Amino acid sequence: MRIARFSIDGNVAFGAVEGDPAQPDTLAIDIIKGIPFAEFELSGTKVPLNKVRLLSPVLPSKVVAIGRNYAAHAAELGHQVPDAPFAFFKPSTAVIGHGDPVPYPPFSSELHHEAELAVVIGRMCREVPRERAHEVVLGYTCANDLTARDVQRTEKQWARAKGFDASCPLGPWVETGLDMAAASDLAITCTVNGELRQAGRTSQMVHPIADLIVNITEAMTLLPGDVILTGTPAGVGPLNVGDEVAVSIEGIGTLANKVIKRD
């Protein structure tokens, strides 16, 4: 099931997206009674997807991101692959949805894209054993770990470089129909203005999804709707005002955002 969060006529709701993503005009959203983190029913009330505004599919209390989890990406930036997952945070204010604009951060002159698979947590959890990691996952979505690369190089902490407003596009929806084995070998790409910039597979992760969940929940409680960013393949590069950047993941969909000049 593809679960989206959307607004229509000033109201916000969750819904199940039906139809063929390859034929956008066929897509409709069946409004959910309740929330996707508990038992819910489909209302049967359907709205064409092109009549609603897609929002970020979840509102996480925190985004836990993993750095240098693809060896080729670590190498392209001149870093070693860490022995254990290397985590940092993006705040909830960084999260935006599919189609939302990305204002170019005024304190940077080197904004980079980073296409990533995002894991959406479905229930409160801590100290999760590896064999049960799949039980705490609601589903998967596309993410773009936007980074002020020049700031990242000059500041020891990554809070500003990775956590600025609109630095964490998520979407277009959460795909719940993938099990962890399937999610661990998906094609992931990033294009800028239609030009291919990144191409890899989630099977190239140094630390797989289950290990990330174990590592993170050893230290902190994850809540329903929290998000884990699993790292990016090689090919990261610059974005300019006016660019449209799109992250596509096999079996999930495409997340697209346009970079604009900040007012």
Description:
- With 263 residues, this protein is mainly beta.
- It folds into 2 domains: 2-53, Roll (SH3 type barrels); 63-260, Alpha-Beta Complex (Fumarylacetoacetate hydrolase, domain 2), CATH 3.90.850.10.
- Helices cover 12% and strands 40% of the residues.
- It has helices at residues 71-76, 149-154, 159-163, 180-183, 209-219; strands spanning 2-8, 11-18, 28-33, 41-48, 53-54, 63-67, 86-90, 95-96, 102-103, 111-113, 115-121, 137-144, 147-148, 168-175, 187-192, 195-201, 227-229, 237-239, 244-249, 253-260.
- Strands 1, 2, 3, 4, 5, 6, 7, 8, 11, 12, 14 and 17 form a 12-stranded mixed beta sheet that branches. The protein has a 5-stranded mixed beta sheet with strand order 9-20-19-15-16, with no helix packed on it. Strands 13-10-18 form a 3-stranded antiparallel beta sheet.
- A hairpin with a 2-residue loop joins strand 1 and strand 2 (11-18).
- It is globular, with a radius of gyration of 17 Å.
Tell me the count of domains.
2
**Form type:** globular
Topology pattern, helix = H, strand = E:
EEEEEEHEEEEEEEHHEHEEHEEEE
CATH fold group of the largest domain: Fumarylacetoacetate hydrolase, domain 2
Going by helix content, strand content and strand pairing, the class is mainly beta
Highest CATH level, the class of the largest domain: Alpha Beta
Low-confidence stretches: none
The H-level CATH homologous superfamily of the largest domain, spelled out, is Fumarylacetoacetase-like, C-terminal domain
The CATH architecture of the largest domain:
Alpha-Beta Complex
Specify the biggest β-sheet: 12 strands, mixed
Give the overall pLDDT as a whole number: 96
Estimate what percentage of residues fall within beta strands: 35-45%
Keywords: Hydrolase, Metal-binding
InterPro entries: Fumarylacetoacetase-like_C (IPR011234), Fumarylacetoacetase_C_sf (IPR036663), Rv2993c-like_N (IPR018833)
Organism: Streptomyces humicola
Domain Rv2993c-like N-terminal: 1-57
